[in-house]
């Protein structure tokens, strides 16, 4: 009986690894001539503070609070997460190639949590993407960007030109799906960040709108 249970556990693990490691393929899109050399995510490019209601689900743990994003200079942002009552939970400065942790609540001071937040916000706040290929479907213009072993698919709405989705992949495996709802190029009204290989989800909802 124990052997059967062990076999079932192994089969389940192999199945989960297979599902989580599927190669990402762009579906229902056709290749078009490439006129853009670079595209940008401008949602966090303003010098004004971006303030959001934040909900984070990390496996079975739920964290709710206020997230403040501030551009310090052209390459670096400061990110502060507080509780709903204003108590600071985490405070860090981040750029494409640097990370400085200013403060973290002891309960959140775990290497795996810090690494996830570092990676997630480096991807979210990345601004410029060199374009390798261009595609389109009925609703979107899609740009493929290659940076080292990382590949990004950026979806821009055909009607208003707003960025509505970024698919981040690494080694051809889908890692994170960023979905935006916006009315302006420099401000996302809401954001949904969904990991594909871990049970991690971050949702941001507008509190104050930047000009």
List the SSEs and their pairings.
Blueprint: H1 2-20, E1 30-32, E2 38-40, E3 50-58, E4 61-71, E5 77-82, E6 88-94, E7 99-104, H2 111-124, E8 128-130, E9 133-136, E10 140-147, E11 150-157, E12 163-170, E13 173-184, E14 187-195, E15 200-208
Protein name: Outer membrane lipoprotein-sorting protein
Describe this structure in words.
The protein is an alpha+beta fold and 211 residues long. The chain has a single domain (24-208), classed as outer membrane lipoprotein receptor (LolB), chain A (Clam). 16% of the residues lie in helices and 50% in strands. The protein is built from two helices and 15 strands. The protein has helices at 2-20, 111-124; strands at 30-32, 38-40, 50-58, 61-71, 77-82, 88-94, 99-104, 128-130, 133-136, 140-147, 150-157, 163-170, 173-184, 187-195, 200-208. Strands 1-9-10-11-12-13-14-15-3-4-5-6-7 form a 13-stranded antiparallel β-sheet, with helices on one face. Strands 2-8 form a two-stranded antiparallel sheet. A hairpin with a 3-residue loop joins strand 9 and strand 10. It is globular, with a radius of gyration of 19 Å. Mean pLDDT is 87; it is low at 1-21.
Shape: globular
What structural class should be given to the helix and strand makeup? alpha+beta
Largest sheet: 13 strands, antiparallel
Helix content: 10-25%
Number of strands: 15
Measure the end-to-end span: 65 Å
Strand order of the largest sheet: 1-9-10-11-12-13-14-15-3-4-5-6-7
Average pLDDT works out at 87
Q: Which band does the percent of strand residues land in?
A: over 45%
Count of alpha/pi helices: 2
Radius of gyration: 19 Å
């Amino acid at each position: 009986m124990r052997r059967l249970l062990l076999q079932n556990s192994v089969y389940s693990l192999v199945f989960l690894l297979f599902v989580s490691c599927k190669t990402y393929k762009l579906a229902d899109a056709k290749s078009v001539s490439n006129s853009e050399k670079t595209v940008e995510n401008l949602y966090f490019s303003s010098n004004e503070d971006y303030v959001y209601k934040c909900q984070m689900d990390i496996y079975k743990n739920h964290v709710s609070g206020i997230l403040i994003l501030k551009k310090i200079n052209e390459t670096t942002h400061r990110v502060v997460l507080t509780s709903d009552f204003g108590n600071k939970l985490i405070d860090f400065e981040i750029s494409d190639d640097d990370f400085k942790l200013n403060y973290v609540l002891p309960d959140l001071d775990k290497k795996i949590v810090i690494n996830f937040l570092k990676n997630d916000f480096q991807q979210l706040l990345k601004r410029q993407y060199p374009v390798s290929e261009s595609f389109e479907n009925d609703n979107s213009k899609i740009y493929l960007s290659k940076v080292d072993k990382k590949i990004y698919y950026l979806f821009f709405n055909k009607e208003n030109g707003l960025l509505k989705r970024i698919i981040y992949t690494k080694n051809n495996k889908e890692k994170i799906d960023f979905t935006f709802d916006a009315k302006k190029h420099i401000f996302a009204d809401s954001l949904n960040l969904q990991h594909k290989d871990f049970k991690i989800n971050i949702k941001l909802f507008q509190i104050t709108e930047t000009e």
